[in-house]
Design a protein that fits this description.
Layout lengths: L4 H23 L1 H80 L12 H25 L5 H18 L2 H11 L4 H39 L2 H32 L4 H11 L3 H8 L7
Helix pairs in contact: 1-2, 2-3, 3-4, 3-5, 4-6, 5-7, 6-7, 6-8
């Protein structure tokens, strides 16, 4: 087989390079030796560079990994926080909508929207049914919001606490409370009893604030002779009487509410309200081992 022209040219070129290399090595031995040293230095340089890269690059890679991990973890926490806030907002809107809907019952039935005087039997029954609906909503709000360890829920519960204490100022609601709480969630029941005790404790402060406001209104009336100030004074008077009546009524109802509770809880309610419940209960049932 005859070799091709390209093959012959390739062999000639290889032979020429080999011959040239041999000639250079004989004619310029120092040059060849320097090239060898350059190659050794190059190898040594890359070895050092590889060691340096390993020494620096590996910790850097770890730092990058930790940074990305923390970034991912932070993003996950932020996402969870956002989801939790959305859930809290949805809960707040849903429960407030429920409360507004319950209040519509009073708007549509003004005859039972009378809470500080006795009603006829039919209206009394309808009002009790309304109170039962209201208590159910309070209990739902308590179970959803109150136990949660969340700043958003804590702020939200302050609103519902105000709702509850506002209703505890109403005579018919308080009178119905023992029956309304019968059979309800024990934790919620205890909360309601504690809220009632706190109201007894706080009402004197409310009345004092009203008296201070009343004194300021009298001074303003002397200076301004404004007819609207008289209405505000009358409103303060009515509010003060409501507070006093509510305190007296809750003080009567509390012994009934706590009668079957453990002595430790009764003492706790005593400390909050300032009432001597234990002695009163012992006077009702001297044989009871309540000490």
């Amino acid at each position: 087989m005859k070799p091709s022209r390209k093959t012959i040219l390739g062999l000639c070129a290889a032979f020429a390079l080999a011959t040239g290399a041999i000639s250079v090595s004989h004619l310029y031995p120092d040059l060849v030796q320097s090239l060898v040293h350059v190659e050794e230095d190059t190898v040594r340089f890359w070895e050092m560079w590889g060691a340096l890269t390993t020494a620096v690059g590996f910790p850097f890679a770890i730092l990058v990994f930790l940074y990305e991990h923390r970034k991912t973890h932070r993003e996950k926490l932020e996402q969870e926080k956002k989801e939790r806030e959305n859930e809290e907002e949805e809960t707040y809107i849903r429960l407030n909508a429920r409360y507004s809907k319950v209040m519509e019952i009073l708007i549509n039935n003004p005859a039972i929207n009378v809470h500080d005087q006795k009603l006829e039997d039919v209206l009394k029954k309808q009002q009790y049914e309304f109170y039962a609906t209201l208590i159910a909503l309070f209990e739902e709000s308590y179970n959803v919001i109150y136990p949660e360890d969340s700043q958003g829920y804590a702020k939200m519960w302050n609103t519902w606490e105000d709702f509850i204490k506002e209703w505890l100022l109403k005579r018919n609601f308080v009178i119905s409370l023992p029956l309304l709480l019968d059979g309800e969630d024990p934790d919620f029941v205890r909360y309601m009893k504690t809220a009632a005790a706190e109201l007894v404790r706080d009402i004197p402060r409310y009345i004092k604030d009203l008296e201070e406001d009343y004194a300021l209104l009298e001074k303003r009336e002397e200076q301004e002779h404004n007819s609207s100030l008289e209405e505000m004074k009358e409103d303060n008077k009515a509010r003060g009487k409501q507070y006093e009546s509510a305190k007296a009524l809750i003080a009567q109802i509390l012994p009934v509410l706590v009668r079957n509770e453990k002595p430790e809880f009764i003492r706790e309610i005593e400390n909050i309200s300032g009432l001597s419940l234990m002695k009163y209960l012992q006077s009702l049932d001297p044989q009871a081992s309540i000490a």
